[in-house]
């Protein structure tokens, strides 16, 4: 089987000619190249087992066990991203980058489709390399040297849980006491695999720009968020039975669409540990 990589127009690359149950060292290098250049690797027609989901993830780093999602009973390394027919909210419905609140943020997540609704439930991705490249020269130089604070507290903490009614998201554990992470990262990072610059702030977890006053920082974050959400940077991934997406948190945002009321959607997610980020 020979691997083929087809970059999408906006974000990500589609990789075919690979069985994720059996990956070679050169497959791993090609997937790292896809992540470091396009931000997401998409795969179709896979039949990956839970054991091989774990084995595949470990080619890229240690597994980062999620503090807030319910794990599979026999596989604590695998988090369930689940929406039941009776639930009105889903996990990941706002634009975000997983784990940006950690001092050493996760490399990325490998999401495997297990049960899909008849229609809907696509995931949107934004290419933060392309969003950075398209900024004006003036804005690029303004961003150099800035840092941002990211936090888990307002998303997974006690107040957020209460505001949500506490019972809408079965995929989440009620452990708001674990939401204690704050981290500072450069606003523009160099991607650890490719060295390419990417914008590293996101609407869900970024709380402020450290070097600017509150109003100026908020205005700049909003300008970046509006810019990044343009269609030319956004790819819509339509899940099918056997689909797998491996996104790199250092190069993308993602958002799970909540447009399949009354249907079940179950995904298995493994998050891979990353490295400290530098500008
Ligand atoms: C997530 O944010 O991890 C969920 C993505 C999805 O369910 O499509």
Question: What this model shows, in words?
Answer:
The protein has 279 residues and is of the alpha+beta class. The protein has a single domain (4-273), classed as Double-stranded beta-helix (4-Layer Sandwich). 22% of the residues lie in helices and 28% in strands. It contains 7 helices and 16 strands. An 8-stranded mixed sheet has the order 1-2-3-14-6-16-5-4. Strand 4 (71-72) and strand 5 (75-83) form a beta hairpin. The longest helix has 15 residues, at 214-228. The model has no long low-confidence stretch (mean pLDDT 92). Bound molecules: succinic acid.
Average predicted local confidence, pLDDT: 92
CATH topology: Double-stranded beta-helix
Tally of distinct domains: 1
Q: Name the hetero compounds present.
A: succinic acid
SSE pattern, N- to C-terminal: EEHEHEEEEHHEHHEEEEHEEEE
Radius of gyration: 18 Å
Strand content: 25-35%
Strand order of the largest sheet: 1-2-3-14-6-16-5-4
- Which residue ranges are poorly predicted, with pLDDT under 50 across at least 5 consecutive positions? none
CATH architecture classification: 4-Layer Sandwich
Instruction: Give the structural class.
Output: alpha+beta
The coarse overall form would be globular
Task: Compute the number of strand runs.
Answer: 16
Major sheet attributes = 8 strands, mixed
Distance between the termini: 38 Å
Task: Output the number of helix runs.
Answer: 7
Helix content: 10-25%
Q: What's the CATH C level?
A: Alpha Beta
What oligomeric state is this? single chain
């Amino acid at each position: 089987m020979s691997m083929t990589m087809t970059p999408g127009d906006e974000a990500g690359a589609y990789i075919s000619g690979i069985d994720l149950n059996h990956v070679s060292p050169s497959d791993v290098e090609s997937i790292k190249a896809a992540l470091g250049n396009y931000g997401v690797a998409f795969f179709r027609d896979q039949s990956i087992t839970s054991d091989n989901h774990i084995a595949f993830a470990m080619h890229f780093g240690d597994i980062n066990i999620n503090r807030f999602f319910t794990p599979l009973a026999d596989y604590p390394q695998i988090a369930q991203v689940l929406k039941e027919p009776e639930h009105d909210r889903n996990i990941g419905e706002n634009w975000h980058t997983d784990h940006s609140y950690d001092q050493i943020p996760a490399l990325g997540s490998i999401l495997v489709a297990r049960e899909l609704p008849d229609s809907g439930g696509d995931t949107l991705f934004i290419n933060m390399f392309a969003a950075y490249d398209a900024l004006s020269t003036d804005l690029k130089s303004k961003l150099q040297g800035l840092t941002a604070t990211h936090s888990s507290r307002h998303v997974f903490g006690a107040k957020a849980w209460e505001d949500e009614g506490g019972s809408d998201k079965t995929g989440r554990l009620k452990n708001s006491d674990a939401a204690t992470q704050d981290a500072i990262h450069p606003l523009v990072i160099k991607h650890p695999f490719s060295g390419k610059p990417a914008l590293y702030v996101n609407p869900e977890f970024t709380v402020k720009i450290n070097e600017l006053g509150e109003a100026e920082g908020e205005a700049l974050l909003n300008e970046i968020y509006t810019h990044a959400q343009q269609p030319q940077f956004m790819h819509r991934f339509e899940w099918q039975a056997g689909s797998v997406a491996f996104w790199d948190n250092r190069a993308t945002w993602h958002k799970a669409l909540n447009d399949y009321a009354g249907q079940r959607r179950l995904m298995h997610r493994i998050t891979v540990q990353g490295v400290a980020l530098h500008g």
